[in-house]
């Protein structure tokens, strides 16, 4: 199972129709994967915002979450909806593109241009499907490092991300401390919890129970397991919100009716909302990518790579850390974030931490949370001062 | 949709093979349902334990939860596993069958002998499927009252139940206060929460997305939507446990292997456990019953039947109440139980309440929880003293 395997990959399925940049990486030498295989060359699709300064010292890498992608700011090319961090990244915003050069790449295994299971396997001329190697957060970050090399950036000013993005931030700072000045992991953990593995497994079982999944080979059948993927998304979506947020948003309000229908239509607004979340998600996401990326999160256990001692992942780190959690986040609770802070304290790292009061649950990092934005901006300003970065272009 | 509809029902599919009692109810006059239809005659399958005393004053009605049934004590006729409350009900146990006559009936819409969607519709000679009326907790309790009439019991000594069973207890005490001496709702709420409706909707969508559901008519096709039902059960099962209990039980331990497989098998014990829960559940439960019973829970909102004022559901109640919640129960949190207590306080009802410290989550009421059992026994003893019940037969 761990026998070396050389995989050549190209992003042939989705790539051509998507706007933005694409780099062909690992062209000279295939990139090793944690499972023992090697992959290369492969395509890495990414977006950039702002301008790289002459010193190449103002680059911020944003790492996206499970179902995110590289379209941070602009309207999404498939859904037409605003970019997932358009409230946070842009001119004058907390991650200020007048000052910083922001990069965001679709993760390895994804479905928005970076090579993943829906792309063609050059060995067979057919989509990889379940022949795509099981990748890890370490592999995602290894691929991003090749992209940063490709862009000629020696040291990232900061790596930022929430949820699975935060896992990547921790992996970056641990694996490549000399390449990272500041690290900002948000609403994350150094390992995926038992409950979170359980929720992921439910989603995967929903997909794999859909007969249109065809053992992962649905591309050849001209179908997609949309029913299973929608159910997976619905289950996951509940975990992104707090009970308080769900209650405030929907309560027991009825949808387009004044009395109960005594049927199985979406009587309640929350049902209608969830169905909408599930059924629209399938238009922009590949079911196999969902399987692979959830698996990468399940496998994430940073301490395990260091003899079970999390502090050893950060020993002698020069990186400046800031961690943030949200009080009502039950998917990545404060305790898991704090465990990282304790490990960093144990190696006397430069670290600050704040739990932000919010009743919006895990999704708070995607929303208009003034306290979160204020702290994000403040940490980056302080980091920029230490780094000797020029003020925002508009002010310069 | 609310046009009166007379439904004649018999429990023909599952009934004959199941041990225990079955009463034909509403034979003289069909029973009205909350949706405006009427049902009858219909079969109610039930079990009893212990002996009804001469005064008929020692009867405890136990109401079961979503996937429970009437087999409280003995090994289950389908799975062979111990009855779901065999730790709590029996000779010398907190609900002492040496002293009390215990009754438990399969709910209307269920699949263990009481008429439900898998049973034959006499009008067509075929199973009801999705032609079964959408029933409510009120309908379940109305059916139970017919059973209690049938058994010749004027006043129940106590009505007890956890989760959806607790909803039935509240409904009993509110609708038939003159028929109930004591009420013991456990780990429940006077209305289903937004988050809980959301989880139920995920389960229903999983079932209805299974092509073998056939719009509810799978009986005619000789198949069952086991894939969808298993996924529904898996998602629900996570909500029955606390994160702490899941972590303690499984952590990130691997299943029958020492290293990650880099695949989609059940690498982690928690995955294997969940799959087992899902795949064994389908052997004993009907997917349509799952749809109908979850819907009944969603619809439960006791205040709504009383102009939005929960206290009005209990005005002038003579019933003695004891409510219990578990500190780590996030499905039916203490706050929802306490809301009932506040409503009872507002009408100066006789009520006691305790939140039991436990990290076992919602399922704690099914487990060997000494504090819970001690309090349960204590409340029933006190109630028996007030009621002037003789001590346990063994002591008499």
SSE pattern of chain A, N- to C-terminal = EEEEEEEEEEEHEHEHHHHHHEHEH
CATH architectural arrangement of the largest domain in chain A: 3-Layer(aba) Sandwich
Taken from the alpha-carbon principal axes, the silhouette of chain A is: globular
Unreliable spans of chain A are: none
CA-based gyration radius of chain A: 21 Å
* Strand percent estimate of chain A: 15-25%
- How many runs of DSSP E, i.e. beta strands of chain A? 15
Structural class of chain A: alpha/beta
Question: Helical region count of chain A?
Answer: 10
Largest interchain contact:
A-B, 59 and 59 residues
What count of structural domains of chain A?
Answer: 2
Q: Roughly what is the average pLDDT of chain A, rounded to an integer?
A: 94
Spatial order of the strands in the main sheet of chain A? 2-5-9-6-12-13-14-15
Largest sheet of chain A: 8 strands, mixed
CATH superfamily of the largest domain in chain A: Alpha/Beta hydrolase fold, catalytic domain
N-C termini distance of chain A: 56 Å
* CATH class category of the largest domain in chain A: Alpha Beta
Do you know the CATH topology of the largest domain in chain A? Rossmann fold
**Share of helix of chain A, binned:** 25-40%
Oligomeric nature of the chains: homodimer
């Amino acid at each position: 199972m761990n026998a070396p395997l050389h995989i050549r990959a190209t992003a042939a399925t989705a790539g051509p129709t998507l706007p933005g940049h694409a780099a062909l990486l690992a062209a000279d030498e295939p990139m090793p994967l944690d499972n023992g295989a090697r992959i290369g060359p492969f395509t890495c699709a990414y977006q950039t915002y702002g301008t790289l300064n002459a010193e190449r010292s103002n680059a911020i890498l944003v790492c996206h979450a499970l179902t995110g992608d590289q379209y941070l700011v602009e309207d999404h090319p498939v859904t037409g909806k605003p970019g997932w961090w358009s409230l946070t990244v842009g001119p004058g915003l907390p991650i200020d593109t007048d000052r910083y050069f922001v990069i965001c790449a679709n993760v390895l295994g994804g479905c928005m241009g970076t090579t993943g299971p829906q792309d063609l396997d050059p060995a067979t001329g057919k989509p990889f499907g379940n022949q795509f190697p099981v990748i890890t957060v370490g592999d995602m970050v290894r691929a991003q490092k090749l992209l940063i090399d490709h862009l000629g950036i020696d040291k990232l000013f900061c790596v930022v991300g929430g949820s699975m993005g935060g896992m990547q931030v921790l992996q970056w700072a641990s694996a490549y401390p000399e390449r990272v000045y500041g690290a900002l992991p948000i609403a994350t953990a150094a390992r995926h919890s038992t409950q979170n593995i359980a929720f992921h497994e439910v989603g995967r079982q929903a997909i794999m129970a859909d007969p249109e999944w065809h053992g992962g080979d649905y591309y050849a059948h001209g179908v997609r397991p949309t029913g299973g993927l929608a159910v997976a998304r619905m289950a996951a979506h509940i975990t992104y919100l707090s009970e308080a947020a769900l209650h405030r948003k929907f309560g027991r309000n009825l949808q387009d009716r004044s009395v109960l229908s005594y049927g199985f239509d979406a009587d309640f607004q929350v049902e209608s909302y969830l169905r909408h979340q599930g059924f629209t998600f399938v238009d922009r996401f590949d079911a196999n990518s969902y399987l692979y990326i959830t698996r990468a999160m399940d496998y994430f256990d940073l301490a395990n790579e260091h003899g079970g001692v999390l502090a050893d992942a950060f020993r002698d780190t020069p990186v400046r850390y800031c961690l943030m959690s949200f009080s009502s986040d039950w998917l990545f609770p404060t305790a898991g974030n704090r465990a990282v802070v304790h490990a960093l304290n144990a190696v006397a790292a430069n670290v600050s931490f704040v739990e932000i009061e919010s009743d919006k649950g895990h999704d708070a990092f995607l929303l208009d949370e003034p306290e979160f934005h204020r702290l994000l901006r403040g940490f980056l300003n302080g980091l920029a001062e230490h780094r000797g970065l020029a003020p925002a272009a508009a002010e310069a």
